[in-house]
Each structure stands twice: as C-alpha cells, then as structure tokens.
Amino acid sequence: MVKNQHRKFSILRCGIPEGEFHPCCKILESISEGIITIDLDKRITFFNKAAEILTGFSSKDAVGQFCFDIIRADICTEKCPLDQVVKAGTSPRDIPAFLINKQGEQVPVSLRACPLATEAGDIIGVIEIFRDLSELERLRRQVARTYSPEDIVGRHPKIRQIFAVLPDIAESDSPVLIEGPTGSGKELFARAIHNLSSRRDGPFVAINCGALPDTLLESELFGYSRGAFTGATRDKPGRFLLADKGTLFLDEICNTSLAFQADLLRVLEEGEFTPLGHTKSIKTDFRVVAATNRDLKEMVKEGTFREDLYYRLNVVKIALPPLRERKEDIPLLVEHFIHKYNLLKGRAIQGVSPEVMAFFMVYPFPGNIRELENIIEYAYILCKETYIRMEHLPEDLKEWAQQHRLDRPATGSLAVEEAERIRRALEKHKGNRLATARELGISRTTLWRKIKKYGIE
After folding, report:
1. Distance CA 388, CA 58 (A)
2. What are the C-alpha distances in Å from 259 to residues 25, 135, 299?
3. Of the candidates 1, 82, 89, 5, which has an alpha carbon nearest to the alpha carbon of residue 46?
4. What's the whole-number mean pLDDT along residues 399-422?
5. Distances (CA, A) of 269 to 80, 181, 206, 266
6. SS3 285
7. Looking at residues 31-59, what average pLDDT do you find?
8. Could you read off the pLDDT of 240-269 as tens digits, one per residue?
9. Is the predicted pLDDT of residue 300 greater than 90, yes or no?
C-alpha cells in the first residue's frame, strides 16, 4: 500500500525516477510552513521539515500513515480538507484549527488546502499547508490580557515550583496573596489563575489600590447611586459588583489605609456590600486575588496593616523573586520580548549582541521584568540592524555600564558557551530534541533554530 502511494507521488515529481528528488521538493523542505501531501486514501505521501517541527512526528514516521492519525486536527471529523477539495470541489483557505502534536499539546494553526492533479487533470490528492499561529495566539492573549501559564516565561526553580501548583491554586477558589517587587509579573500570574479557574468565563476586574485615595477607592469598589453626593448624576456599579462570578484583583493592597482595610474585610467575610447612597446591601460572589510589593507580615507587626485582613487574604501565598535572583531566565525573557516586538512592529531582529547579553547578566534590574521589556522596546526604536547592541540601549544603562567598568566580552564568547551547552544537553538525552528543549527551557522550534545557527550535528 505504501509503495503505491510513492508511485502516485512520483507523478507530482514530474516523472522523475523514484530514487531522485525534485527541486520543488527541496524548496518545500526549506520553507517555514508545514507542507503535507495526502492521497485519496487519506495517507500521507510527503511531510516537510516544518511539518515535523509542528507535529513532533518525523517524516519517516508520518509518510504512509493516515493523515488523521498524524495531524489530529479538530476539523478532521467535520470539515475534512480532503473531502472539501475532492467532493465539494472547494479549496479551503486560512481555516483556523487546532492540531494535537506528538506530545499531546494543542497547537493553533491556519490551514490551506488545494488539489494535487496529474497533467490530465485527474485529482490524486491534496496538498495541505499549515501555518503555526502559536506566537500570534500568544500575542493576541497579551493584547486581550487573557494570560495563561504558557505566557509566563521562566525556568528558575521558584518559578517552576509555582507552575507545578498553579492549576491546584486556581481550582481551589481560595483567596490568593501574590508577593513580589514592582514589575515582577504579579498581574500576569493573577490573570493566569483566573483563566485556569472555574471562573474563567466570568470577568477579571483589576484595580490598583495604591493609585487612588481612600474616598475614590471606596467609590470605585463599592459604587454609588445617583444623588449620593454632589456630581453623582447617575448610578455607577462598583468593582465588587462588576467582579460577580469572576475574579477581583487588588493590586498593591499594601498601600491602603486601616479604615479602608476594615471595610474590605467586612465585604470579604459577609459576601455583600452597600453602595454609597443605597439603603440595602447587595450580594456578590467573587474570588479575591491580592498583590503587594511589601511584606505584609512585617506591616502587621508595624501596625500599618490589619492582622485579620492579612490572614483573610493569605490563604494561598505566591512569592515571586526579583529578576536579579533569576538570572537564568534573562535569555528566555529577552527572546520572548524580541518575538513579541517583531510581531508588533513587523521587524526581524534576531536577538541581542553578546555584549548586551553580558551586560544584562550583571545589571541589577531594579524595575524587574517590566524594565527589561521597556529596554527591549526602546532598543527597537534605534536598532536598524539584525542584533541589538549597546549603542541601542537607553543612556542611563550605558552610563551604568561605564561607571561599573564592565569588561567587554570576547566576540562570540557567549554564543560559543550557548552552543556548547546545547551540545552537552543533546548528548545527555541521546539526541532527543524534546527532552533537550525541556532541560534548556526553550521551545522545540527555538532549539531547532539554534542547532542550525551553530551547525550542531
């Protein structure tokens, strides 16, 4: 049966003998989109390199197999592209779909299909083109601010420990307290908890408690009725009501007054509140996730934070380390932000120079991850080259580097070190790229690109 498929595919090769490779096939091997050809029996006859990366299956494993056993897309049963081409005579284009790769992960793709025909016009199968939308989907979630754990970059042990328990934390519906310095990604984790929880279909309502005085904070959270005070010309629902059946994120809870903390505690314990100007209380059902950049336990000792509210919020605690304590995550974060801004700005910057990466590894990042992202975004304004260099960084960073007399690393030294680290990991896992990528904390696509870049066998 498989031999028959290869005979059919030789027609596509324009009559070239079976053992030879047509130049068109070499082109298909080199492009970044997954290319798969399927015969009328729904067996795969061609599988390019990009399809291997996309699905996790090798061409050797895929060719000759039924397409639905390898591609495993959500449209296979109801909107089979082969059936649409052969039976309906249509050529579906830019069809959104999800395929399940060999590791069981769901990959968003865009699919196109067109017929394969002989010179006589007889259809012998279809060619399906898959475009990986993983990066675009991640960017869409960032724009829509619907983050999931896949959007959180990090391989530091503390981050991995949080990853391991995050689904359980989300499922529990208990209050969560997230501690971490400004810019460490507290809201990102709060949104991931919401999107993993049973309240994911409800609203995620966030408010920065430190940005408003008590009077405005109370009106924002409790809401008010028309005529409650001068200027209240209409009813305004508060965040407590807007967060009903969802999650309320109280950022920088440490900056609130003791009086406000007492009011907040009452709402959390009773599950109801009274808007300003109302005479009746309103029931509400929300989960609270609070964040702080200060140690609330120390504030309780100082008398600046209510002890009863602290224990009400501190059912589950997540402690995020500052970026200076998770240096191994800096290369991953740099790569992540470069991917992001390449998509946003339509650029093709490949990365940062070894000198810039060496600087990042010693710079203390007082603004944490947010500061790193701002630095990369700024560099995109000045950088017209393939790599971001020191001259593309903000002036205050260049001054910091001069003050600390950082030695310039030998050209390519970090690249050599990275290549050697990849070689050792590949040797350790006997060439298994999935296991290697997991150990290095990078995607299989990134690993494949670095292997090609460094010429690793």
Report:
1. 35
2. 72, 46, 15
3. 5
4. 66
5. 53, 28, 20, 5
6. coil
7. 87
8. 888 999 999 999 999 999 988 998 999 988
9. yes
CB-based contacts of 394, cutoff 8 Å, min separation 6: 375, 378
User: Helix or strand or coil: residue 316?
Assistant: strand
Q: Which has the minimum average pLDDT: 192-196, 202-206, 287-291, 344-348?
A: 344-348
Confidence grade of residue 132 (pLDDT, cut at 50, 70, 90) = confident
Residue 248 half-sphere exposure toward CB, CA atoms < 13 A: 25
Overall CATH class of domain 139-321:
alpha beta
Q: Report pLDDT digits (tens) over 15-29.
A: 334 444 455 566 676
Span 196-203, average pLDDT: 90
- What values do phi and psi take at 210, rounded to 5? -80, -10
Reading the block at residue 393, the tokens are 């960084």
User: At 219, phi and psi to the nearest 5?
Assistant: -65, -35
β-bridge pairing 34-39 and 123-132: antiparallel
Domain ranges for the chain, please list them: 2-132, 139-321, 326-454
What are the tokens at 347?
A: 């650029």
Alpha carbon distances (Å) from 226 to 48, 146, 230, 259, 380: 65, 33, 9, 25, 48
- Classify burial at 7, counting beta carbons within 10 Å of its beta carbon; exposed 0-12, middle 13-18, buried 19 or more: exposed
Tell me the CATH number for domain 326-454: 1.10.8.60
Q: Quote the DSSP letter at residue 164.
A: H
DSSP readout, 377-394? HHHHHH--SSEE-GGGS-
Positions of E strands within 182-307:
204-208, 223-224, 236-237, 246-251, 272-273, 282-283, 286-292
Q: Mean pLDDT across the stretch 186-208? A: 90
Burial class (CB in 10 A: 0-12, 13-18, 19+), 176: buried
Q: What residue has token string 């050809």?
A: 37
Q: Which residues pair with 224 in a beta bridge?
A: 236, 276
Pairing of strands 351-352, 387-388: parallel
Report yes or no on whether pTM surpasses 0.70: no
- Residue 246: which of 195, 191, 199 has the closest Cα? 199
Structural domain 2-132, CATH architecture:
2-Layer Sandwich (3.30)
